[in-house]
Amino acid sequence: MKIIKTLTLAAVTAATTTLAATALAQAMDHGKMHGAGSPAATSADMTDGEIRKVDKDNKKLTIKHGDIKSLDMPGMTMVFQVKDPAMVERVKAGDKIRFKVEKGASGFVVTELQPAGH
């Protein structure tokens, strides 16, 4: 019986250690993907896009965009809400942009927006 308890304890310890190491590795990779405070990495979170439509009344932008790696989303054209309503005043259809988007409670929200090339 003592051997079974010892083997069970060893198995539980090994499983816990493996899970903890896996979680740590994933957290570190996630930090790299989302910038972890590094200005160079933050720029990597930006996605290239083109404004297709500006809906000033509803504070929304239709953007044709490339892959959004931070959300594991392929390129497509879709409507986004904006974090700052002033964003809809700074762009027009046809503008090439770089932007950052986050998934909010009510949908996808553009949190940063700049002309392409900056």
Name the CATH architecture of the largest domain.
Answer: Beta Barrel
How far apart are the first and last residues' alpha carbons, in Å? 68 Å
N-to-C SSE string, H for helix and E for strand: HHEEEHEE
| Residue share in helix | 25-40%
Give the oligomer, counting copies of the same chain as homo and different chains as hetero.
Answer: single chain
Task: Predict the CATH topology of the largest domain.
Answer: OB fold (Dihydrolipoamide Acetyltransferase, E2P)
- Which structural class should the secondary elements be placed in? alpha+beta
Architecture overview:
The protein has 118 residues and is an alpha+beta fold. It folds into two domains: 2-33; 42-115, Beta Barrel (OB fold (Dihydrolipoamide Acetyltransferase, E2P)), CATH 2.40.50. The chain is built from three helices and five strands, in the order ααβββαββ. The protein has helices at 2-33, 39-44, 87-90; strands at 47-55, 60-65, 76-82, 96-104, 107-115. A five-stranded mixed barrel has the order 1-2-3-5-4. β1 (47-55) and β2 (60-65) form a beta hairpin. The longest helix is centred in the N-terminal third of the chain and has 32 residues, at 2-33. Residues 15-25 and 27-41 have low confidence and may be disordered.
Summarize the structure.
The protein has 118 residues and is α+β, with helices and mostly antiparallel strands. The chain has helices at 2-33, 39-44, 87-90, and strands at 47-55, 60-65, 76-82, 96-104, 107-115.
Keywords:
alpha+beta; 3 helices; single chain; elongated
Give the SSE map.
Layout lengths: L1 H32 L5 H6 L2 E9 L4 E6 L10 E7 L4 H4 L5 E9 L2 E9 L3
Parallel strand pairs: 3-5
Antiparallel strand pairs: 1-2, 1-4, 2-3, 4-5
